Every structure is written in C-alpha cells, then in structure tokens.
Amino acid sequence: MIRQIQYAVKRAFGLDLAGRHYTVYPDDTFLVSYPKSGNTWVRFLLANLIYPNQTVGFSNINRLLPAPGVLSKRFLKKLPRPRILKSHEPFDVRFRRVIYLVRDPRDIAVSEYHFDLKKRYISPSMTQEQFIKPFLAGETSSYGSWWEHVASWVGPCYSQPRFLLVRYEDLLSDPVGETAKIAEFLSIKADEERLKSAVARSSADRMRKLEQQQSKQWTGTKNTRQEIPFVREAKAGGWKESLPRHCVEEIEVAWFPLMNFLGYELQNAELDNKAMPVWVRAGQSR
Amino acid sequence: MGSKAKAGIVKHLVAGLKRGLGLHTPGKSLVILPDDIFLVSFPKSGNTWTRFLLANLRFPDKPATWATIDWMIPDPTGTTKRDFDRMPRPRIIKSHECFDPRYPRVIYIVRDPRDVVVSQYHYHRKIRKIEDDSPLEKFVTRFLLGDTCPHGSWGQNVATWLYTCEGSSRFLRLRYEDLIADTPRELAKVVSFLQLPAKPEQIVQAVERSSADRMRKLEKEQQHGLYKGSRADMSFVRAAGSGGWRKDLPTDQVARLEAAWGPLMHHLGYELATLPPSEIGEYAPLGTAITAPR
Q1: How near does any CA of chain A get to the CA of B76, in Å?
Q2: Do B101 and A144 touch (CB under 8 A)?
Q3: Burial A73-88 (b: 16+ CB within 10 A, else e)
Q4: Are B78 and B226 in contact (CB under 8 A)?
Q5: Cβ of A138 and B294 within 8 Å?
Q6: Is residue B289 part of a domain?
Q7: Which residues on B lie below 8 Å from A90 (Cβ)?
Q8: What CATH number matches the domain at A2-104+145-232, 3.60.10.10, 3.30.930.10, 3.30.420.40, 3.40.50.300?
Q9: Residue-wise pLDDT tens digits, B164-184
C-alpha cells in the first residue's frame, strides 16, 4: 500500500518512469530494433548528426536520443517535437514513423550471449551452445524471439512509406550512404561532410573509449560486469568463428524464410534455394 | 500552482489510490501468468460470441450472461485487477491487441474484413461514435487506415499475428465463418488446444447457451453496462452471420478492401469478388514451424 501511494505521488508529478506506458504523438519517429542489432550505434550516429556541436557519449545519449523506458514521463513530455525515440518493442500500432534496424540473427545470438553474461541475465557457466535453444524460443528477451520481432514489424509494414528498413550489415559496409538514407527519412538536411563527421564520431573505436570513461554513467552498462565490454566486435559475420556449425544450422532451419528475405546468405545451401517470399501489403500508407 | 494543475494532481492521486485497492482495470499493465490463454481478434470479429462459448464451456455450472461475462472471460480494459487476481486459473482473457510476445497461448479469431467493416460501421452508429447518416465509404477509408479503433487496421492486426505465430503449437487460428458453419466442430478444436476436460454433450450445451437468439434475449433483459449510453434501438448482437457484405457493401467499396488486403484474404480462404486470381499477389505463410514452442 505504501508503495502504491509512493507511486501515486510520483505519478501525480510525472516523475514515474515511462516504461511502456507513455504518450505517443503522431509525429514521433521511432528507431526500433530487436536488442543487439546495432541500435546504440545508430543512436550515436543520429545524435552526432543532429547535434554536431555537442560531445555525444554514453553519459548523455539517453537524453539526446531518448529511450522512453528509462526516462520519466515529464521529461518525455517536455522534449521538443517531432521527437526521435529509441525502442525495442515488437509491433506497436501507435508508432506511425519507424526506422527498423535488422541484423543477422546468427550474429545476434553471439552478441546477445555476451551481453546477457555482462548483465548477469544468464548464469556465468552457460555456454554459447546452451544459449541457442532459449534464444530461438524467445526466452532470452522480453521482446519475443528475433523471428517474432522482425515478422511483427516487417510483415505489416514492409514497403510502407513511413517505414524504413535498414540492415546493420549495410550500415557497416557503407555507413555514410546508409546514414544519408536515414537522414533523408528524418528530413534532416546533411551534406557529405556532416555525414562523414557523424560517422567518424560514432566509430567503434571512439565508442569503446567513451565506454571506458562513462560505463558507470549509463543505464545500459551501470551495475554490469565491467570486464565484459558493451561495444564488442562491432562487425558482421562473427558467427562464422564463434558459433558451432550445428547451432548455425538450428537457427537457419528455424528462421530461413525471413533470413532469405532479408538477404542473409545461408550456410545450408538447400534452404538458400527456397523462393524469396513476397510480403503482403497488410497496411495502408497514412 | 494553477487550478488545472491541482485538478490533474488530484485525478492522479485518486487513480493511485484506486490502484492501491485493485479497483482499476489493468489494461496493458496486466500481469500475465504462464498458464494464461488469450482470446484475441480484431474488433467485430465474433469475439463476444466466442467469449460466451468459452465461458459456457469453461464454467458449465453457470450459464454466461452479459452480467457475468467480464468475470468469466475477463477483459483487461473492463475487468478490475482485483477480479483478475481472484480468478480461477488458467484464465481465458479477451483481447483485441496486435501481436504481443508475452501472451503464452493464443486463440485468434479472424473474420472476413468485408463483413467486419459493415459490422463496425453499424456498431459505431449504435455507440454514437459516428453520425447516423455518416456515409459508408467514408468509414471504409478510415477502416483501411486503421483509424476506426486503437488496434490497428484489420490487415495490420491479422498480419502481426499470422506472420509471427502461424504454425506455432501455442497458436490456434479460427475463422468466424467456420465457427458459424459448424460451431461444435470448431469448439472441439478449442477443447483440444486447451486440453479442457469437456465431453461432446458439454460442447453442445455451450453452443446452445451461446446462440445468437439467447444472446439477443439476454441483451434485451440486461441492457448490459458495457455499452451504457448507446442507442437502445440498435442491438449489439446484430446479424450474427457471414457474407452480409454481398448485400450491404457496394462493389466499389469491396474493391478497395480487396485491393488493400487481397493476398491476406485469399490466404485465409475468403474468395475475392473484384480481383481475378492472377492478380492476387502471393502471401507467404512464413510462420510454418518457425516459432519454437515455449
């Protein structure tokens, strides 16, 4: 009861954390992805693009490119509009403009395993192999499985004008070009120089340095195992060295139609030959 | 502090105290239990009828009525948290939400969108959301955009569930049209999906107790609180049939729905009236054996 009253008072002053319950405006843009798909990197890219005169770091990223879950409702209400917000939510009908970032699930399996060790979400004795089964079942994340997450967004929204699909892998191979696409989607006028500067200031090396200085000042890394880095390899295809062959096989058998659709080349060539699906236009442009 | 701000704070304090006593409706904050079952559909797709069917199946000793349905098959936006906490488990919970990965088991009811739009149009006239003489084509425009309710468009709602869950052992998809055509057969699917200890005669009893005639009669007697302030001259239980769109929906409006959602409708077995088969795009049933069972 005391806790409820505390909550009531906090809520009355708008100081309660927004969690999943905050007001969404029709002109909001959401940067959405399954966890461990490069969301933090893109937050840095966008923050550096939008605020070229500020030093973007882990200590201020929650304010510069806000994550509603860890901020108060009052803070979110006071942000200038249109807002750009980060989210890991599966399909949410209130999100009218979405940049959806997708990454090869074989790399996510490796990245999420290390992240969950860092966060102490899993036992330190759990092996990468043991991680695959709960990962496929969506038990390692409160946002569902990778399949559920991607299908819930790409299924109804693909080819819609207010939905921009970005592959993490494309962002790695052509960061300036892909950032330009995102900037255009956001109607941010940015010349080549400004784009290049944002990319340079969001490089993995720079983010690693910032993490070393500020890891205790960010909700994502505070109270986690400091010997495991948050910014890890920051590359594509690491699964080829880190994942046992049979684990790769399990992921591909479970999720090949969507992996094919997204252009992720499969180790199992038989699955690779299956026809690429055509997505239904399940939504209408708004 | 202005009086408006004060009023706002009082409102929040009252909400907080209600919360303390569990008298609020939990909505999206509902704590989901691992054995919960969700009965999900886009609005106007036969959800209330199926609620009656399941309530009568789950509680054979107590025929469901409009007065008891919110307790038997609770609704997170209509049932209080206290009632949720006191309910026998496993709970069967009503929902109109798009895909939610937290739902442990889901029965998803889908209905021909051409019938859904007509049904929702009349329902919105009943609850005075739209003017009585508001043109149907204007409503179809909003329906296609998903602006007639907070649960997305028909296509979005259906697609978020089918793409993520079809083929999963924790997901049962039923068509409203099949439920109408052979209610006991479809209900038997539910019984097996939920592993309920229901005998065939209990299924028959549940069907009888949930007939459109009985629901209409109960509605007249109870003028249930769910739709307070709505027009008493229009009933909630309307045609309770399928294919009414052929009579009620002009061809040009049918064409708009089919142009938007043709592949999905075709995939669900709804024969298209304005698109030849060669022009229907391919719907990829991606969910086949995809999502590992929890």
Answers
A1: 15
A2: yes
A3: bebbeebeeebbbbbb
A4: yes
A5: yes
A6: no
A7: 99-101, 164
A8: 3.40.50.300
A9: 988 888 999 999 999 999 999
